[in-house]
Amino acid sequence: MGCVGSSTKGVVDRHQKKKVRRPKAWKHSEVITRAQLKQMRDEFWDTAPHYGGQKEIWDALRAAAEADIHLAQAIVDSAGIIVQSEDLSTCYDERGAKYDLPKYVLSEPTNIKQE
């Protein structure tokens, strides 16, 4: 409850869950191979827990990023992850810690080089 003039604009409602969607198409700054993309992803996931937050949430976000869209939704729901951006690029845990995911861990660029 608040006073008559209070507003809930901009407040995240933890009970209103956003549906996870596929990320929009994007283009890397230069053409890269699948091996380079995999290396970038592995480096991010190896260092992600050092950015703060809980390791269990990072593990759940990795599983969701690598899963199909329906399984990703189930993973974030069961882990109690609050999805700010529907493409999973910005999420929060129940304690309010923020998790930012780069687009290269969420989808492939349009200019990936076929090996």
TrEMBL record:
It comes from Sphagnum troendelagicum. Residues 1-25 are annotated as: Disordered. This is DC-UbP/UBTD2 N-terminal domain-containing protein. Residues 17-114 form the DC-UbP/UBTD2 N-terminal domain. Residues 15-25 have a biased composition (Basic residues). The lineage of its organism: Eukaryota, Viridiplantae, Streptophyta, Embryophyta, Bryophyta.
